[in-house]
Design brief:
Layout (H helix, E strand, L loop, with lengths): L1 E3 L2 E3 L3 H11 L5 E7 L9 E9 L7 E11 L2 E9 L10 E5 L2 H5 L13 H4 L2 E5 L3 H7 L2 H7 L1
Antiparallel strand pairs: 1-2, 3-4, 4-5, 5-6, 7-8
């Protein structure tokens, strides 16, 4: 803790993560975007992203994300360690929520792909090259829950 004029100030998350990265000889990449003040917002808030690779090969990394307005004014903070998947997958896909606009767009030429799980397929629109490797990956219940 820092002490300024007898007031104890705790370190910010960014300060803690920066110290950790330096103490373990890792690089830290951070971005900070300032939200403009408005009639509703009377003080400055920031969207912040921190990325700390575990090693030069990027075999794993830590990400911290903070956005005070990500969900209609509700603060959102995510953090965790991530490990890249082995890349036997050559396709590029886009996955988005299936909403009422998609259901009403009867004139769309875009055909969405399905993985064969009716519960998951009814909630998402998948476009792009959906090969057997991607279908196998998307068939995992834990991944489906995270995507939804």
């Amino acid at each position: 803790m820092l002490s300024v004029n007898n007031y104890k100030m705790e370190k910010t998350n960014i300060e803690i993560l920066t110290e950790y990265a330096k103490s373990t000889n890792r690089k830290i990449i951070s971005t900070r975007e300032k939200y403009p003040k408005s009639g509703i917002r009377t003080f400055t808030k920031f969207k912040e992203i921190i990325y700390i690779p575990n090693n030069a090969e990027n075999t794993s990394y830590f990400i911290w994300f903070s956005d005070p307005y990500a969900k209609i004014g509700l603060p959102t903070i995510y953090s965790g360690a991530f490990i890249p998947l082995s890349s036997c997958i050559k396709s590029s896909i886009n996955i988005r929520n299936r909403n009422i606009i998609y259901k009403l767009n009867v004139f769309s030429n875009t055909k969405s792909s399905v993985i064969g799980d009716s519960k998951f397929d009814s909630k998402v629109v998948i476009s792009g090259g959906l090969d057997s490797s991607v279908k196998q990956l998307l068939s995992q219940l834990k991944l489906q829950e995270q995507l939804l």
